[in-house]
Structures are given as structure tokens and as C-alpha cells.
Amino acid sequence: MNDEPRNDRLRLFLTRRRASFRYAFAGLAHVFRTQPNAWIHGAAAAGVVLAGFWLDLSRSEWGLVVVTMALVVTTEILNTAIEAVVDLASPEPHPLARTAKDCAAAAVLVTAGMAVVVGALVFAPKIWDRLG
Predict the structure, then answer these.
(1) SS3 132
(2) What does the domain layout of the chain look like in residue ranges?
(3) Is 95 exposed, middle or buried (0-12, 13-18, 19+ CB in 10 A)?
(4) Which residues, 6 or more positions from 112, have their beta carbon under 8 angstroms from its beta carbon?
(5) For residue 127, with 0-12 CB atoms within 10 Å meaning exposed, 13-18 middle and 19 or more buried, which class applies?
(6) What is the torsional sign of CA 50, 53, 54, 58?
(7) Among 61, 76, 83, 92, which one carries the catalytic annotation?
């Protein structure tokens, strides 16, 4: 039995996966290179991680914090993608283009706001204990 066709399929599969990761990392790099709010979210996440170590978060608290940070970054990435597609589809100002961009930005705002709430619920009692 000849394994060459199977090896070719595996090689093609791995090549395509590698390309997929390369595109994904290029998108992530684009967001952090071009979006000032992504830098703010990144700095906030770094501060949260440092505070989490200082306050010795539990495994479940880390889970909440990590998922929340991922949601904020994900909505920022989606916001950037939506803005790019709208700019491509509607280079001239249009009310629907503005609505799409505003709604995408609102998604980031809501997610970031909820991240503050989750942060307060997780961190406030621990900070209170440390200071009290």
C-alpha cells in the first residue's frame, strides 16, 4: 500500500493550518498596531493579571477574569473588522455605515463595562480584605 497520497493530504492539511494561524496573528497584530483602544485594553489586562497574582485569585476567579479579558479583546477585534468592511463597502459617508460602526463600538463599550463589573466583583472583596 502506498502512503504517499496520505502523506500529501497531511502535508496539505498542516500547510493550510499554518497559513490560518499566520492570518489570525496578522489580524491580531493589525488590531494592536492600529487601534489605540486595543492598547488601553492590553494595558488594563496586564494590570489585572498583576493584581490577580498579588491578590492570589482562586482558579474560578482566574477563569472569570481570563474569559472576561478575552471577550473584551474579541469585541475589539470584531469592531475593527466591521469598521474595515464598512469602509470598504461604503467609502463615502452613509447613515447605515455610521449605524454599523456605532453598533460595533457599542459592543466594545458594553463588554468593557461588564469587564469592570466582573473586576469589581472579583477584586473588590480581596482588596477590601487587604486594606481592612
Answers:
(1) coil
(2) 1-26, 35-131
(3) exposed
(4) 41, 72, 75
(5) middle
(6) positive
(7) 76
- As averages over each run of 10 residues, the pLDDT of the chain (132 residues) reads 78 95 97 96 96 97 98 98 97 96 98 98 96 86
d(CA 66, CA 122): 12
Alpha-carbon separation of residue 2 from 6, 82, 109 (angstroms): 8, 47, 57
Residues in the chain, overall count: 132
Spell out the CATH class of 35-131: mainly alpha
Which triple of cell numbers denotes residue 12? 496539505
CB burial of 46-68 (b: ≥16 within 10 Å; e: otherwise) equals eebeebbeebebeeebeeebeeb
Please say if 76 is a catalytic residue.
yes
